[in-house]
User: Fold this.
Amino acid sequence: MAETVLMRNFGRADSHTLASYRGAGGYAAWDKAQTTEPAALVDEVKKSNLRGLGGAGFPTGMKWSFIPKSHTGPVYLVVNADEGEPGTFKDRYLLERDPHALVEGMLITARAIRSALGFVYIRGEYVQPWRRFSAAVKEAYDAGLLGRGFDIVVHRGAGAYICGEETGLLSSLEGKKGWPKIKPPFPAIKGAFGQPTIVNNVETLCCVPPIIERGAAWFAGLGTKTQGGTRMYSVSGRVKQPGVYEASVSITLRQLIERAGGVSGTGRLKAVVPGGGSAAILTADEIDVVMDVDGCRGAGTMIGSAGVIVMDESVSIPEALLVLARFYAHESCGQCTPCRESTGWIEKMVHRIVEGHGRKDDLDTILDVAKRGGGTTICAFYDGAIGPYISYVEKFRGEFEALCRS
Amino acid sequence: MPKVTIDGKEIEVEAGANLIEAARRLGIEIPHYCYHPGLSIAGQCRLCMVDIDKAPRPTIACNTLAADGMVVHTETDRVKETRRSIMEFHLINHPLDCPVCDQAGECWLQIYYMKHGLYDPRMTDEKVHKPKAVPLGPHVMLDAERCILCSRCVRFCDEITGTGELGIFSRGDRSEIGLFPGQDLENNYSGNVVDICPVGALTDRDFRFQVRVWYLDTTKSICPGCARGCNIDVHVNRKRPHHAGGRRVARLKPRFNDAVNAWWICDVGRYGFGSVDDESRIRFARQRGQDLTRDDALGLVIAALRDHAPDEIAILASADLANEDLFALRRLAEHRGIRQVAFRVPPATPAADDDFLLRADRHPNSRGAEIIGLDGDAAAILARCRAGSIKVLWVIGHDITAAGWPARDVADALEHVGSIIYTGTNDNGTSALATLVLPLAAWVERDGTFTNFLGRVQRFRAAVEPLGDALAGWDLFGRVLGALGGPVAGGRAELWFRELARTVPAFDGLSYQSIGDGGAMLAGAAPTTAPEPPARRANAAASVAEVSR
Amino acid sequence: MSNGAPPTSSRPPTERAGLAAPATIKFSPEQLAEVRRLQGLYPDARGALLPVLHMAQDTFGYLSLEAEAYVAGLFGLSPAHVHEVVTFYTLYFQQPKGRHVVGVCHNLSCHLAGAQDILRHFEARLGIARGETTDDGRVTLQAVECLCACEAAPMAQVDDRYEMQLTPEKIDRILDGLR
Ligand SMILES: Cc1cc2nc3c(=O)[nH]c(=O)nc-3n(C[C@H](O)[C@H](O)[C@H](O)COP(=O)(O)O)c2cc1C
Ligand code: SF4
Ligand code: SF4
Ligand code: SF4
Ligand code: FES
Ligand code: FES
Assistant:
């Protein structure tokens, strides 16, 4: 049985309250951290092999260490709670069921990076999670946990997937459209309001208290060689028991599907998206992949946000791609040319194919356009979009061709 | 100072220069749309990709600072392929209405497509449609379908004027440039967005559909609109005048000069050249409404100056005249001993400086007139006219009937003057009352120099022929001077300038060569720089406030 | 920054105003105080723009051009910059919306669970197409992207609430509850 770290409190009565959290030993890690040097906290997180759980999988401790040592002005901690990746719902659970874990994770992180002000950017649609988390913040203020050297501002988004991208999020936090910023400079050098900023995902920061409390070695040991810990896999689509499952990052996709009750619908697996809508699709033969950052990379896809979407034999892959192509055309921020222009174009082509007016050379055009645009854009949104564009067409070309005129 | 190697050539550039600028120094052009040296880096068009040694894939040059030892390649196969792809992305939703687009011929979509595009079009789906021919204000017309969303115009209004009228609304391929509904683009610098728009999305309402740009000729010049002396190019239509109803000057464009106006000019100056080709131009001399030959008219001027005592003659010169003209006039006054010479006639409604380039003094050469020594007391001259002691009043360029003097005083004065000579480019209230009228060539019709309010002497050049019998000021005054036996410098503006430099200490050492295209400072004047744009000043003030808080 | 109170940014989009925009676009003195408090939470007051636009939408029903210009004034911003923001985000309405807003997710997991049928059922029951508002101003129906409750597909957001595992019967019950 895999260890339950992130979801340890979900089963408790009133798990979202301070009393319940304290009752389960909450804020002990913060007590410990307060007597630990910031640099030692960063080191501990480095050693834990914690890698960002928001999408990019960047080593968390290393990211923290990028804050310029010479900087004397403010440093901000920004929590990415703009969960929007299709197929992902873990942060919603954390905000609703264990908000104090995030507050505690923020307190420790703020100490590590010497930040006095944190922002939690919650997607606008998440009204209940926003209420729950705001209530937890109020409790933490009342209990004197916050307001003594560290403050939290809870910020609501207004509906835009791109604000999950960390610099789009920062633009939005600054009161602008969610246009991602060109890099360099990176946020750790010049982020929110022009100051050094660390952006971390909700789940990433919820890993921090257990790491500090139980030690980096323990956490690292839960995972694989290059990534420590467990993580929360969101499993949806054609499985018998969709839901969020915590497991060691060493779990395979096959095991995960089994834990979610196995394939529903026809019961025969056709394909799986392993890491949210923007991950390249895997065929039924490819599910022995280890669900950590490097495992998925090795399989030509990405673990991303660990949103697993399962498709059985009856699912139309071209229709599924149309859903995603429409999504990317709708959500492209429009700032840079390759993404702005080709997300719309590709949606039109896929639409035409699904409607039965496609030509076989459209498929080559889709692949060519996606490949040419890859790596040329301001942010990784477009590299995410081409994951499905390319993999769906390449791996299921026959299915697309069957819809095309010759 | 970092040293970089671009396409095998090494160059040292100042710290902070990006790769586009570094390459430009080497004569290598990295194609780009959104980058503009006067604006912040946006990195949106993605066209400026280059290969940098050790980088896994092409990188944008505009957001990459030249770093010591960096090795850059602008023409690898990979870069060329990337550019071709980016060009295709730029064009898939473009309406391709070049035949009816004013930008055709100077459009960077056309230019780069020919150089870096040239692919087989394969977008067969319906293009995104957006508004066309939307007036954004008095001067600018928008075609949103042609817009490549480079955001230059938006950044201009945010970072230069600080007026923030333009925005990019919505998102994805529905993104659209525009104004807040109901608002106009009405700042005094609005014409600049047309210049910086790389495509035909923003066009000039005044220039629209006049003439194809490939029929235009360009001449380096100086704006005569105010004492700033912004550097400009005059675009004239010599080849197809019938296309524009005989209008010769098609448009004025800013010419970069970091010491004066940087990349910008104001709308007052940009659209202020209408009088050059309009009905009110004086083409031939006339006496009481009857046309005269030039020689007859000059003869009358010569006689008037010769036959009156110097203290019966007054001259109201103009700071619209070039340094050369003013110097010839000074010579003439000195030769005849005329001491009542002034140039400052107060305007009826005083203008104001704006917050950037435009000066309250709407004459290009007040500083020159002052230094050349024509700075007499105009009000005193008016008073002496009223007292009946002036017999010949020579008015150059001014309309004293519409000046900031009481109308009764002016009428009274003119009644008492025996002969009023008017010399200027255009008719006005004063020319209507004058006994003798002689035409002057407009600034675009002759060579010369102006001295701006900070003491920068700058050259402008003839772009078109003078109309009718019009002469440049130095020529007209020189002919009169010669006839009266005075020392004439010669038959070219440059010769008068040489004489000026020899005579007036502030001009010592200056020559047309040393002034060049960028201008040169008067002796003793401090070097100038273009003023900080209002938006930058506001930001700087805000951050100072921030620090002191 | 340590003002003790939990600095949450805005009120949820409950108690929506009716269809018609109020004749005068103006916050109450208490709301103006709230605007100033929000602006004070951010290192640059502009950070409070999204929360204040939420407030304006809750107060005025939707973000008319007048409301945008009013908010621009509160921040010393050009109205064009507020318009950029309002037109960028899907939760801001530029037209009057219904008293209730139903956003049916049609992204991948919900699609696999029959989101199109769910949308069609809403359309049939309300007599409107997605993107429209019923004539009586009761409901605005939208198709929206992943709401990140894919484990409960097909699902929809109804005002503040997530309605999970939708069926035609459940939809009927939900709609009956919307006044
Ligand atoms: C298009 C796009 C959408 C993203 N959406 C999210 C998101 O919803 N939540 C998130 O935490 N990270 C998201 N990310 C990743 C963030 O950019 C960033 O890497 C992350 O917040 C960093 O936190 P971590 O290191 O803790 O993962 C997204 C990235 C991209 C390119
Ligand atoms: S890649 Fe797409 S989402 Fe990212 S900045 Fe460019 S247009 Fe916007
Ligand atoms: S109108 Fe011209 S300058 Fe403005 S964004 Fe479009 S292409 Fe660029
Ligand atoms: S500021 Fe003066 S010189 Fe410059 S363009 Fe305007 S009028 Fe001409
Ligand atoms: S010029 Fe570099 S991205 Fe546009
Ligand atoms: S796909 Fe509908 S909630 Fe995620």
